[in-house]
Amino acid sequence: MAGIYIHIPFCRKKCTYCDFHFSTTFESYRKRMISSIIEEVHSRAIELTDERIKTVYFGGGTPSILNALELHQILNTIRNNYKIDENVEITLEANPDDINSDILNTWRQQGINRLSIGVQSFRPNDLEWMNRSHTAEQSVNAVKLAQEQGFHNITIDLIYGLPNMSIKEWEAQLDQAIILNIPHISAYCLTVEPNTELAHLTKSGKIVTPGDHIQSEEFLMLRRKLLEAGFVQYEVSNFGKEGFQSQHNSAYWKNEKYLGIGPSAHSFDGVSRRWNVSNNQRYMSTIETNGDYFYLEILRPIDKFNELLLTGLRTIYGVDKTTLLKEVTPPTSFEEQINKYKLKGWLVEEHQKYLLTTDGLLFADRIASELFLVED
Predict the structure, then answer these.
(1) Number of domains in the chain
(2) Same domain for 31 and 113?
(3) Cα 69–71–75 angle (5° rounding)?
């Protein structure tokens, strides 16, 4: 089984916090970009000839910008060139302001069976400084309309650790999501990425982000509220009710194969990682001339070891010791670090797996990075 990720590098507006690859001035080459994506889908089918496709994920950017013909062309190329599982999960990321009855009907007819709606916040003032293109009211209406149109597998994105948001206000955000009966929620702590508008605003003092203590408090609130509401925290930032965990994202964390299509998209085949250029013009021109539009890295045993730690420790699946130690024998300092985290109550070892505790999840990336092996 394998997955396909399609990166649509189009957005109507640039969000204050975003550092993903996209363009807001794309209409002049829109048709050319879609043709290039379709060509990559077609040309790379040979990489998954022996695999059945269990997930297709349209991310971005803003995939809900795609019109019916563009979406049909991409999906039709996938269906004509790959072996598609009968229970394939097809996800499309959508902005609330793009959602209406007609487009929902189009998506459903074309096989989209999971929506990822970019709510980010139910507070109007947050959406304003984020420079989001939708309103809080549109978010609520979009979810309700999608449910009425037969979309039951819906996830929304929420951000915590926001400026000027109290713990009570964060709780109200979660209550709103729970009331809407959404079966999956992805909640991310606000991160100030370099070269974003948010980085400029924080550096100039116009926006002040909360400290680690408040972010941790909001994370624990998030976890408590959603677990009480029947969600399973299957990854640090992802909560799903039974049967609604993201199959596509779970494949990333389990190190399963996937193709990344489109500018900046990443791929993994178990042996190597490759990533496409993060430049729209270069991507299109090299696709058209059969040039090299990607970079390739063959993974060493130490790379696989570190990646298993990074992805596995963030999930309820944990890190399987047999798999982890298959190609690498770590130094004694590794076991010493493991024991240190056990004593802190951040990590446990169960059924030959390393798993983080609730307290450990607060420091998942830090713990993984401190356990990484570095070649001399």
Answers:
(1) 2
(2) yes
(3) 120
Same domain, yes or no: 216 and 341: no
CA end-to-end span of the chain: 36
| pLDDT tens digits in sequence order for the chain, 376 residues long | 899 999 999 999 999 999 888 899 999 999 999 999 999 999 999 999 999 999 999 999 999 999 999 999 999 999 999 999 999 999 999 999 999 999 999 999 999 999 999 999 999 999 999 999 999 999 999 999 999 999 999 999 999 999 999 999 999 999 999 999 999 999 999 999 998 999 999 999 999 999 999 999 999 999 999 999 999 999 999 999 999 999 999 999 999 999 999 999 999 999 999 999 999 999 999 999 999 999 999 999 999 999 999 999 999 999 999 999 999 999 999 999 999 999 999 999 999 999 999 999 999 999 999 999 998 6
Which range of residues forms the domain containing residue 348? Answer: 319-371
Same domain, 181 and 93: yes
Residue 277 resides in a domain = no
In DSSP terms, 268 is beta-bridged to 258, 273
Look up the pTM and report it.
Answer: 0.96
Residues 68 and 200 in one domain: yes
Q: How many residues does the chain have?
A: 376
Final residue belonging to a domain, choices 235, 253, 271: 253
CA nearest neighbour of 88 among 57, 46, 49, 47: 57
Whether 30 maps to a domain, the answer reads yes
**192 and 331 together in one domain:** no
CATH code of 91's domain:
3.20.20.70
